[in-house]
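Reviewers of the previous submission asked for a worked example of the structure-prediction workflow described in the proposal, so we include one complete record here. The input consisted solely of the amino acid sequence. No template or homolog information was supplied to the procedure at any stage.
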Amino acid sequence: MTDQHYYNCIDNKVSAEFMDRGSRFIAYAFPVESIEAFKALLNEVKKIHPKASHYCFAYRIGHDGAVYRVSDAGEPSGSAGRPILGQIDARQLTNTLVVVVRYFGGTLLGVPGLINAYKSSTSMALQLTPISRKKIEVNYELQFDYTVMNDVMTTVKKFECSVLKQDQQLFSIITIGVPKIFEEEVLRKLGEIHGLEIKKAIQK
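From that input alone, the workflow returned the following structure tokens.
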């Protein structure tokens, strides 16, 4: 989200609590990379707080931040999910989920009060975790004879590619994550290795 070669995310689960007129708002921030992971984390929060009145959330997923969702979970429209997402976006984060659990304190806060509570609790949680700047990677599958393994791994290490999967039999097959910033150079170097087959791998 920050530029075409890097993205910002969080590495750790954190939580923070905000109180207003008896209502408790507990914000949980999680690193998340898929909708399936989001569903599991939301269920985890609901198990921890089975008696809460609301479980509002927002997430943004993907290197470009294109996948996102907000939920007011029964609060007035626009009073919870959007303010949560606003704090994620204010820090230019992706692969980030925030779930805010509310225990109703008996006093209605009104829409401005709710917006402030969901925004403040989210902001407090996100301030507790360092932000990581990571390289955007493009995945490639390489197939080659073991005799050129050294040449392949020299290029992989030189350009700080991630080795995502490795299968060594008669032929070696490895899946690597190539930093987008070095993509052209890496493909050129690998293309010079005799007998190496390169194909784009499916991104997770």
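The radius of gyration is 22 Å. We consider this example representative of the routine output the project will generate in years two and three.
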